[in-house]
Amino acid sequence: MDMSKIPSPDARAVTGVIVVDLQGDFTTLKQGSLAVDGTDSTYVKTVEQVTLRLRAKGFTLFATQDWHPRDHVSFFTSHPGKHPFETVEIDGLSQTLWPPHCVADSENAGILMDPSFFSMVVKKGTCKDYDSYSGFQDQGGTSTELERLLRAGKITRLIVYGLATDYCVKATALDAAKRGFEVFVVKDLCRGVSVDTTRAALEEMAQHGINIITMADL
Fold first, then answer.
1. Which domain holds residue 183?
2. What is the CATH number of the domain that holds 48?
3. Exposure string (b/e) for 135-154, b if CB count within 10 Å is 16 or more?
4. What is the distance, to the nearest Å, from the Cα of residue 138 to the centroid of all Cα atoms in its chain?
5. Residue pLDDT, tens place only, 15-44
6. Does residue 102 have an active-site annotation?
7. Within-domain flag for 174
8. Among residues 30, 124, 170, 187, which one is catalytic?
9. Is this model's pTM higher than 0.85 or not?
């Protein structure tokens, strides 16, 4: 690990933090419909503590939030005869079918931190016709407001962590790197859906120039 690459307090003015999808439906704490292993109260509290420490150092905080309509394309219930975790092709795109989750205005769609901690909570997956793993755009190519907010704040470096390593964290980090941001993923502040896909996600991110760090590096 090249420790010189890790953002220092002197870099706080150009460094943003993105907490990815820390929502009830993705945690065992809230018995979510898509709960990821290892997301109990200890995990959520740790994420909150580290995030507040970074805020106290002057870093700008953002969060992403899955915010789906009830008939979202990613829900198996929107496809009669289909079952959770099946894969289908829709308009040339591969789509994993998930249990309904993070339905707009439902309790478990809520961020498990005080939203006032963040400069902005960026909602994604709001269009019923496209899934959206990345905080930057959905699979139909429609952008969220995240990049505009980062550019407006003259942010060039990003610290990224949250849920899940092998899906929304990976997609958000890769999209950030494609847009020219220097990206640091804090792997022990993330949790993944499976061991194999998490390992592959970390390797893929590293291959694309993303810095994989730990809490101890912050």
1. 15-69+100-217
2. 3.40.50.850
3. bbbbbeeeebebbebbeeee
4. 13
5. 999 999 999 999 999 999 999 999 999 999
6. no
7. yes
8. 124
9. yes
